[in-house]
Amino acid sequence: MTVLERLSSGPVYLICGGIITFVAVVCVVFLVRAWRMGKAIGMDPQKMKQAVTASATFSVLPSVGILLGVIALSGSLGVPWPWLRLSVIGALHYETQVAAAAAEQVGLAELSGSLMTPQAFATIALLMSLCIMWGMILSTLFNSRYLKRLRGKSADAPEGAKKQGGFGDLAMSAMFVGMVSAYIGSYIGDFVSGAGKLAFAGSWTPLAVAAVSAAVMGLLTWLAEKKNLRWLDSFSIAGSMLVGMLAAVLIGK
Questions:
Q1: What is the tens place of the pLDDT at every residue in 10-63?
Q2: Measured in Å, how far apart are the chain's first and last C-alpha atoms?
Q3: What are the structural domain ranges in the chain?
Q4: Neighbours of 241 (CB within 10 A)
Q5: Entry pTM
Q6: Which end of the chain has fewer CB within 10 Å, C or N?
């Protein structure tokens, strides 16, 4: 039995499937409790139904990209592990990038099932888990204190005053801009370094996909704000993702 076959064996499915089932049950419990609490405090049931519908549609469309990520990673890490990572806490861009970086550090020429060893998989899985767990840990330790500060600031603000973004908003915006700049910078670097080489044709594909996705996001945002199509807000991110993936497929042919 090869390493890839072991990674997709019954016991691994049982372990990963059990964790996913537990998380799904917890989500259902919170959904029911939130619905009951909303009714108890007098929220409009129609608005709650609209929130549930918007959340469901917003979740279904991005899941197509996540499914593609599971399929892409299953060829090198088996099906259960990518399924667990991308179903519970992982993100598509994070999992693929960290898995590829970890594979390079353990000496694999590429992230491939034919080259995978038990030691390499253990290192890759450990690194994928350690690098993303800090959000949960920091939230557990500091979220309560942070929420108290937010409530205090809201209570002290004068009525009718314009809301100003705090440090958290600025930090998130800066982090997002930095992340996008890092990705775009790496794409530009690949494009420049690939000039005059056989790999040139493929080096501009990420830049083209990023441009297409940004254009679609801008169009959907414009329609939502200028044409009063507010329902598009729930589909803007998912729509730009799907069109970007479609562009990647068409350009890559």
A1: 999 999 999 999 999 999 999 999 999 999 999 999 889 888 887 787 677 667
A2: 35
A3: 1-136, 181-253
A4: 19
A5: 0.64
A6: C
Whether the CB-CB separation of 6 and 12 falls below 8 Å is answered with yes
The number of angstroms, rounded, from the C-alpha of 230 to the middle of its chain's C-alpha atoms is 23
Reported as a single tens digit per residue, the pLDDT across 166-201 is 666 787 788 888 878 887 888 888 778 765 444 444
What stretch of H or E contains 202? helix 200-203
Give Cα separations from 238 to 121, 196, 232, 233, 250 (angstroms): 31, 35, 10, 10, 18
Pair 113, 76: CB distance under 8 Å: yes
CA dihedral 122, 140, 176, 240 (to 10 degrees): 80
Q: Are the C-beta atoms of residues 125 and 81 closer than 8 Å to each other? A: yes
